[in-house]
Amino acid sequence: DRDPQLVKLRAAHARLERHDVIVLAVGTALPQENRKAIGGGEPFPFSLLSDVDYDTHRRWGRFDEASGKTLTGVFRVDRKGSVASTGNLPKPVADLDRLLEEYADKP
């Protein structure tokens, strides 16, 4: 509940699902830590995957070796498995709010 991007994705999840968008979140917490952190709060309607050794974060350019900290990022992967990239690293979406607007329900 502390990551603003996860909170936005949770709030938009039903709308994203109607557009056949699958949301996966990757963090460093173990599953039991995620359950404890959510506590009595609203659970996430999508999978929270654990990357305790930072391997996935490194592959996706979301680990700062100098500080030893992970970086947040949202990536759009199309149906073919393609993702925008910069050099040899996947490129995160620059503006999550703009991305979510693309999936706004139309009257």
Q: In what order do the strands lie side by side in the largest sheet? A: 1-2
The N- to C-terminal Cα distance equals 30 Å
Give me the strand/helix succession.
HEHEHEEEEH
Helix content: 25-40%
Task: Describe the protein's architecture and organization.
- By secondary structure, the chain is of the alpha+beta class.
- The chain has helices at about 5-20, 30-40, 55-60, 95-100; strands spanning about 25, 45-50, 65, 70, 85, 90.
- The chain has a two-stranded parallel ribbon.
- The longest helix has 15 residues, at about 5-20.
- It is globular.
- The termini are far apart.
Identify the notable features of this structure and list them briefly.
107 residues; alpha+beta
Put the structure in a nutshell.
32% of the residues lie in helices and 15% in strands. With 107 residues, it is α+β, with helices and mostly antiparallel strands. The longest helix has 15 residues, at 4-18.
Compile the SSE list and pairings.
Layout: H1 4-18, E1 24-27, H2 31-38, E2 47-50, H3 55-59, E3 63-64, E4 69-70, E5 85-86, E6 89-90, H4 96-101
